[in-house]
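Our platform keeps sequence and structure together, in a single record for each protein. Nothing more is needed to write down the fold, since each code stands for a local backbone conformation. An entry from our holdings is shown next, in its original layout:
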Amino acid sequence: MNEHVTVRVGAGGATLRGRELGARLRTLREAAGLTGDEVARRMGRAHSTLSRWENGGLVPRPPDVYFMLDLYDVQEAERDALLRSVRSARAHGRWEVDASVKVADYARLEGRAWKVETFHNGGVPGLLQTPEYAREALRAWDPGATPQQIERLVSVRLGRQRRLAEADPLQLSAVIGEGALRVAVGGAAVMRAQLKRIVDAAAQPNVDIRILPYAAGAHGGMTGTFTILRSHDDVDVDVATIATRAGDVYYEDVEPFAQALRRLTAAALAQRKSAAMIAAMRRDFT
């Protein structure tokens, strides 16, 4: 959908940029059937250096990336995109990648998280969308997208949702602005099914959904949607993200977002009252 994705992070962002590049390089090495020892030996590098590249502790120089991409037989678009990415990261302190490369792919970052905390005021969070709602939202986002592109993105979205029902499920805490649920995406039938989906999800013990009503007045989420991905991995860190039309923006300093979310949660309706409001909205879509 987006032809270009830009990820900008704060001062602590080198770890995030390095980790994303390193994860991709490790995946390419493994796909080429090479061990870390083999690659380090062919490059004339210490194995510890290669390990630091792959775990994000050190961003490699462009000549090192050239060598690895030749060794892994990476061709054309992905090769060019990765080389542009590493140059940009080193030169400008920001991370730019083509969406097709998936280096900064949100779904992969979310897949490593144990908890997602989010505020949405423009639409239903992707983790709660029905297929019909998702299709309508994606078509509105990019009217030029082909049916194949839409279905591919819907499939990814539904795949992400399966984590909510696993044996060790993803924890979801969502504050949703009332207005996001009153937009008639796809018409009344689609919205009735969508609102039922939210109520059903809220009944799960790992899902906490609260509605921020119009009556709450001015609030800390008026600038827009944001999400915090919580990690308990020794390598990963918590990350906050904002989706924009130009791409996703990631921050490792999540505390300003966490503070805003705490205030939004305090201003929102309790879970039971939120469920009652959603049920009433569902009756309004006739």
Notes: The radius of gyration is 21 Å. The chain has twelve helices and eight strands. The chain has two domains: 5-101, 106-284. Residues 106-284 form a domain with the Endonuclease; Chain A fold (CATH 3.30.870).
